[in-house]
Specification:
This protein has 301 residues and is α/β, with parallel strands linked by helices. The chain has an eight-stranded mixed β-sheet, with helices on both faces. The protein binds guanosine-5'-diphosphate. Guanosine-5'-diphosphate binds next to α5.
Amino acid sequence: DQGLEKTKENFFSKVTKAVAGRSKVDDEVLDDLEDALIMSDVGVDTTLEIIKRIEKRAEKDKYVTTNDLNNLLKSEIEDMLVDAFDQTYKTFSLPADKKPYVILVVGVNGVGKTTTIGKLAYNYKRMGNNVLLGAADTFRAAAVDQLTIWSERVDVPIVKQDMGSDPASVAYDTVLSAVSRKSDVVIIDTAGRLHNKVHLMDELNKIKRVIQKVIPDAPHDVLLVLDGSTGQNALEQAKQFSSVTDVSSLAITKLDGTAKGGVVLAIAHQMMIPVKFIGVGERMEDLLIFDKHEFVDSLFK
Ligand code: GDP
């Protein structure tokens, strides 16, 4: 399984209840389904889209089996997500023509950013890559310490400076070092102080500019880490970060301990940014490549 038991139970039991014993798609079923989806953290907008699609697909008041209705729901959700997901991210592989591949990791404190970086480092290393970490969240001493612990655990080098030093300077050092070490992938941690948006925007822009002095087409990925257990707040953060910088992919963490995994559907549908990874635990093995078929399947199993 995917570590999504709680989401699955929550989603499936609510949706099943809404659908169970019904033999036709009438307004009552659609209303109940709408409630069930909203309560499963799928969010209002995404829920309305799903209901609209089912209304269109199902012949109104025509008799159906519970199974048919479930399958209809499943296929509509999957179809809806098709455009948002890039299906090329099947393994922890890197594009051969971008070396070093630079990943800038953004997100607010506490969402699991450091842990996700550690897990990525583990996975890329496991695939035979030389990994380098950059500790550009210089605002919190704990952030640098935590990343250092991960670098030791996974046994990959890290570039860091004293706390309070310029994040852009750390980022610059990191990519310079990556070039001289011939690293395959560079993963740079940044501070995510969303409460000061202008400052955050300036800081991220500056980091990008200095990276580009060394590697003109970098960063190749701006990965936003979101805490799935915060439900709709995660969606809100995704919107806010997108207004500050060009987020190119998402990692959604802590889906193991929460029943709010339905938010993944909302985020994927509304942001049109691919969800690349999901976090399903605290260990380095607990990062999965997101696969929408598997995800939707697991919700209905
Ligand atoms: P940061 O402040 O964003 O860097 O957050 P951390 O990486 O330090 O993570 C905060 C807490 O969340 C830590 O206790 C992590 O072990 C935990 N955590 C991170 N990712 C996951 C996950 O996918 N599942 C679970 N259960 N815990 C996680």
